[in-house]
Amino acid sequence: MGSTSDVGRRDLIKRSAALGLISVPAMSALSACASGGDDDAKKVDKGKKSAKNPLAVNESAALDVVIFDGGFGQQYAKDAEAEYAAAFPKTKGKVKHAATQKIQTVLQPRFNGGTPPDLVDNSGAEQMDMGTLVGKNQLTDLTPLLDAPSLDDPNKTVRETLRPGVVEMGQFDGKPVWILYYAYTVYGVWYSKSNLAKLDMEYPETWDDMLKVCEAAKKKGIAGWTYPGKYPYYLPFSLYPFIAKIGGRDVLDSIDNLEPNAWKHPAVKAAFEAYYELYKKGYILKGTPGLTHIESQTAWNQGKALFIPNGSWVENEAKKTTPKDFQMAVAAPSSLDKSDKLPFGTLWASGGEPFIVPKSAKNPQGGMELLRIMLGEKSTKNFIKQVSSLSSLNGGTEGLSLPPGLASAQEALTKAGKNVVNPRLQDWYVTLQKQQIGVGALGEMMAGRMTPAETIKKCQKFADETAKDDAVKKYKHV
């Protein structure tokens, strides 16, 4: 996604950015991933541990990197790889870089054959299922990286330099950390300040005002909303924090935990009915159910719709079609009414662009060291400037002139304070989130082919089936 988001998430989401949904197996082949014998026998020898080489990287070993080529592109990774080669001159010419939008198609055979890369940016619509990878013991625990001295301040560990919640996102069972989310994505309702100003409107902080803004836009021939109808798992980017705002964090936690009747909570019903009202009143851009993420973003850039649910990668992903005077911004979901459990400003923000070091990687120390370099101030600032996204490094924006969307995302994050939610469905259960709840339920509802009540019943059915499926490893908030 992120690009997730990023949905998925990117896909994440994600975002955790999703660049197309295809029907692919949920990595069931990994269950047969015997890796062909002793993994340690295939690994390169470790190097000598020192202050400059805290992870004991083999200073002459090759490094194999695969990056998702989505909304963030791949140049930021190439630049970090150049820093790696400069730190270990004997690796010059030995750092292999590949980029693809089809992560699962390209890498599943390599995982099954026991020859995965040393570092993978596992993002996009073909993201490998993280829960499955963890459940099948396919990943390296990144704790040594997190406990290593940070690149810029040896008195701080890498762990101590990360934004709140990033480490926890990479945990599934207990203390091991299997995933490092490199980007930090702010999800929400994205809009153009200049387009709202043309209607003499500001961002609506209540749902009643949202409907008024949409009605005013409709009279001018402008739609209130659009979204990637072909990939409707973007809808939760604003819908999930809306649910949390109405009913509290526990509602999302119970959904993540696959609890019986979690989707039948009154907050879910209220949120679904509010979104369905956008369809019923004709506030959705005509043709939206058939649009890709790029097509919906382009229509939004062209002023055909005011609002779009998205993640903070959108500024970079849509820059070719964004007018100079667009004044891109993001806001938290509007308040439903005075009974909401959380205040206006509550939003979803979390790590995006998940990086993993496969357990069978030949050079896992090298993969972790490249991540350590990426989390240094130099690489972080380079990433921020290139792709208009925050990174998981807590800071890194000092001295930078931020573009409008990213500046707005940072303001929204500051305004949210402690009221930041982080639903885990998109990284715990990728198929459930994207293909079933996203495409099979929410997409149908917003296209008018399913009522909110039918959608809730469908979502609960999908969740119950996942909960009962012994082949799917389960995770819970603790």
Please outline what is shown here:
The protein has 478 residues and is an alpha/beta fold.
Walkthrough of the structure:
The protein is 38% helix and 12% strand. The N terminus is likely disordered. Strands 1, 2, 3, 4, 5, 6, 7, 8, 9 and 10 form a ten-stranded mixed beta sheet that branches. The chain has two domains: 182 residues, 3-Layer(aba) Sandwich (D-Maltodextrin-Binding Protein, domain 2), CATH 3.40.190.10; 212 residues, Periplasmic binding protein-like II (D-Maltodextrin-Binding Protein, domain 2, 3-Layer(aba) Sandwich). Helix 2 links the parallel strand 1 and strand 2. It has 19 helices and ten strands. The two termini are 27 Å apart. The protein is α/β, with parallel strands linked by helices and 478 residues long. The longest helix has 17 residues.
Blueprint of the fold:
Blueprint: H1 39-42, E1 63-68, H2 75-87, E2 95-100, H3 103-112, E3 119-121, H4 130-135, H5 143-147, H6 166-169, E4 180-192, H7 193-198, H8 207-219, E5 223-225, H9 236-247, H10 249-256, H11 266-280, H12 293-301, E6 305-311, H13 314-317, E7 328-331, E8 347-356, H14 364-374, H15 377-387, E9 390-391, H16 404-416, E10 420-421, H17 425-428, H18 430-446, H19 452-468
Parallel strand pairs: 1-2, 1-3, 5-6, 8-10
Antiparallel strand pairs: 3-8, 4-6, 4-7, 4-8, 4-9
Helix pairs in contact: 2-14, 2-15, 9-10, 9-11, 11-19, 18-19
Keywords: Signal, Transport
Family: Belongs to the bacterial solute-binding protein 1 family.
Organism: Streptomyces melanosporofaciens
